[in-house]
């Protein structure tokens, strides 16, 4: 049988190791963005008509290096363009079913009771003047509007993009 002094030392060492492992996991930055739940259709070619929104998938948005703020080449070409992005809405206002601003995220439940996703997985949507988005719970939506690549602070942390929303409608599978 181990004496009480040895037992205490073993417990102390085990507790210290547990704390070290926990802190190293908690403070380690994410290596890569998790794969989004939604995989949108093939992106619209860059030479699409100006009045037709360009379909943008989360794989393109993920090319934003949120540590440096530098977008990938394909993403940089979309800055200031009319785009169409699928995702899930996280309302920022009390009126959860009809809103003028919200966050768009790539998977259901992001930002709710969990640490927020990295900025390259968050889009701040502000609807155009006198326009409202009508949301239906956790159902996915398409958002059409002009995208800007810019780091913005929200109640859930920093977001990597803003879209001035022109239209929000249900995502069809």
Could you explain how this protein is built, in words?
Helix content is 18%, strand content 31%. It has three helices and eight strands. It has helices at 4-26, 58-61, 73-76; strands spanning 54-55, 82-91, 98-99, 101-105, 123-127, 133-134, 141-154, 157-170. Strands 2-4-5-8-7 form a five-stranded mixed β-barrel. The longest helix is centred in the N-terminal third of the chain and has 23 residues, at 4-26. It is elongated, with a radius of gyration of 21 Å.
Distance between the termini: 64 Å
Q: Compute the number of strand runs.
A: 8
Radius of gyration (Å): 21 Å
- Given helix and strand content, the structural type is alpha+beta
Parts with pLDDT < 50 across at least 5 consecutive residues:
26-42
């Amino acid at each position: 049988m181990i004496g009480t002094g040895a037992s205490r030392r073993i417990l102390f060492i085990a507790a210290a190791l547990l704390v070290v492992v926990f802190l190293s996991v908690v403070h380690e930055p994410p290596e890569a963005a998790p794969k989004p739940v939604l995989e949108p259709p093939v992106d619209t070619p860059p030479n699409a008509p100006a009045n037709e929104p360009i379909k943008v998938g989360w794989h393109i948005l993920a090319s934003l290096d949120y540590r440096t703020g530098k977008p990938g080449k394909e993403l940089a070409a979309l800055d200031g363009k009319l785009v169409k992005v699928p995702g899930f809405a996280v309302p920022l206002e009390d009126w959860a079913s009809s809103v003028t601003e919200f966050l768009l995220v790539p998977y259901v439940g992001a930002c709710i009771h969990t640490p927020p996703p990295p900025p390259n997985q968050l889009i701040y949507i502000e609807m155009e003047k006198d326009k409202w988005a009508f949301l239906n719970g956790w159902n996915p939506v398409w958002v059409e509007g002009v995208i800007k690549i810019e780091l913005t602070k929200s109640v859930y942390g920093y977001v990597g993009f803003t879209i001035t929303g022109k239209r929000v409608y249900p995502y069809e599978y």
